[in-house]
Structure formats: structure tokens, C-alpha cells
């Protein structure tokens, strides 16, 4: 688990093909690795990667075909800059929100403009994720915990304050760029709750949620909805 508060910006030093998947080497720059052990997790641009080697100036991680299919890692090359965060501890301040490091989809930056000292972005998510994004709700973009200021016809709007821009890769993000998105996990569990945690396969073979007796009235009666 992570909080979405970036601890350092590192860079890719090598990308090695390994019989269909990839082995990455990441230079971690200012990230303190003194308490990191083999098998620990480090969020890298929002992707939870497992440390398999600790060469001294960074870490090495294997990236499966599943991860390659749902992230931008396959397009990374030597020099690609990445946001880094170590897994949270029980004593960690929850400065952001609960982040799992499992990318839900790729968004596209549609707008970027100055807003006083901040930068305002509009990002278009995949249609399947739009329902999980709420105005003033949490969203993770390339591993950064952010607040969706508003929903727009193109997607959702973000305001990046100077500190966040300076301490992450978002300062260089441009229109047309793809970014990793992870929606608030609470929205995911709420959907499962509303559907009773059940699913079925439709005629196309795709898994669909099955409706249950839990609705807004039920949630309101039991103190979950106002």
C-alpha cells in the first residue's frame, strides 16, 4: 500500500527484454533505500514493483506481460524519469489517500494551462473509469495522489500546486501524454457492495455485476448514506 505522496524522482537506467517480459533498473536518486529489502514494493509512476536486486544506487524489478499490457512501462527507455514512493508503514502519515499501485487504466492529458502559480490539467480517462471519479474526490496520476477539482466534458480537472510540480514528473507533462490512473479504491468497493459482491458472465462471456437488494435507501437506513 502507498499514500500517493512522492518521495523522489528517479530515472530508468536500463530496460532488458527477458523472454517476453522486462527487467527494469531504476536509479532512485534521493530515495533512501537503507530500509528497503529484497521483496519490498516501490511504486514507480504509480505501478507497484517488487525489488529483486539492490545494486546500491537503485533497484531492479521484473515487469510481467500483464503489467506491460496495462501500463506505459513498455515505452520507457534509458533516461525516462519516474515518480517513486516506498510502501507505507503503520506509522506513515496518510498525507494522500490509500493507493494500491495497481493501474486501472491510461488517461490522456487534454489541456495544460497556467493558473496563477499553479498548473491546471484536464485529463481524459478511459470511459470505463469515468464513473469512479468524483468532483473533489481522490485520483492517482502517475503515482501522485491528487484531487479532481471538477468533472468536464473531456474528463476531469486537476490543479497542480508549485510544490507538487517541483517534486514530481508532472512539471514536464504535456498535452497528448499518457498517464497512469488509479481510481479511489473506496469507489471500487462501494460498487461491489451495491452489487452484493456477486457477478455473472453475460452472453459475450464478460463478467458483469449482479444487482442486489442493497440500494441508496438501504444505505441511508443503516447510516451509510445521507
Describe this entry's structure for a reader.
The protein has 226 residues and is mostly beta strands. It has three domains: 8-86, Beta Barrel (Elongation Factor Tu (Ef-tu), domain 3), CATH 2.40.30.20; 105-184, Elongation Factor Tu (Ef-tu), domain 3 (Beta Barrel), CATH 2.40.30.20; 195-221, no CATH class. The chain is built from four helices and 15 strands. It has helices spanning 65-70, 162-167, 185-194, 216-221; strands at 8-18, 21-27, 41-44, 47-53, 58-63, 81-86, 105-115, 118-124, 138-141, 144-147, 150-151, 156-160, 178-183, 199-201, 207-209. Strands 10-9-13-7-8-12-11 form a seven-stranded antiparallel β-sheet. A six-stranded antiparallel beta barrel has the order 1-2-5-4-3-6. The chain has a two-stranded antiparallel sheet with strand order 14-15. β9 and β10 (144-147) form a beta hairpin. The longest helix has 10 residues, at 185-194. The chain is globular, with a radius of gyration of 19 Å.
Amino acid at each position: 500500500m502507498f499514500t500517493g505522496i512522492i518521495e523522489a524522482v528517479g530515472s530508468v537506467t536500463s530496460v532488458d527484454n527477458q523472454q517476453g517480459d522486462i527487467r527494469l533498473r531504476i536509479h532512485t536518486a534521493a530515495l533512501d533505500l537503507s530500509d528497503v529489502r529484497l521483496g519490498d514494493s516501490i511504486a514507480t509512476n504509480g505501478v507497484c514493483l517488487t525489488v529483486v536486486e539492490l545494486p546500491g544506487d537503485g533497484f531492479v524489478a521484473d515487469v510481467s506481460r500483464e503489467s506491460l499490457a496495462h501500463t506505459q512501462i513498455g515505452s520507457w527507455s534509458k533516461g525516462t524519469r519516474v515518480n517513486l514512493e516506498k510502501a507505507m508503514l503503520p506509522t506513515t502519515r496518510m498525507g494522500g489517500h490509500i493507493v494500491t499501485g495497481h493501474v486501472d487504466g491510461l488517461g490522456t492529458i487534454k489541456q495544460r494551462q497556467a493558473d496563477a502559480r499553479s498548473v491546471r490539467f484536464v485529463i481524459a480517462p478511459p470511459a470505463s473509469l469515468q464513473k469512479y471519479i468524483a468532483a473533489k474526490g481522490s485520483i492517482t496520476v502517475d503515482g501522485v495522489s491528487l484531487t479532481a477539482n471538477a468533472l468536464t466534458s473531456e474528463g476531469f480537472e486537476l490543479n497542480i500546486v508549485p510544490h507538487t510540480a517541483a517534486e514530481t514528473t508532472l512539471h514536464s507533462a504535456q498535452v497528448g501524454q499518457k498517464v497512469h490512473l488509479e481510481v479511489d479504491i473506496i469507489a471500487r468497493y462501494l460498487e461491489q457492495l451495491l452489487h452484493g459482491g456477486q457477478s455473472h458472465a453475460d452472453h459475450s462471456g464478460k463478467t458483469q455485476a449482479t444487482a442486489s437488494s442493497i440500494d441508496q435507501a438501504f444505505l441511508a437506513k443503516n447510516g451509510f448514506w445521507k
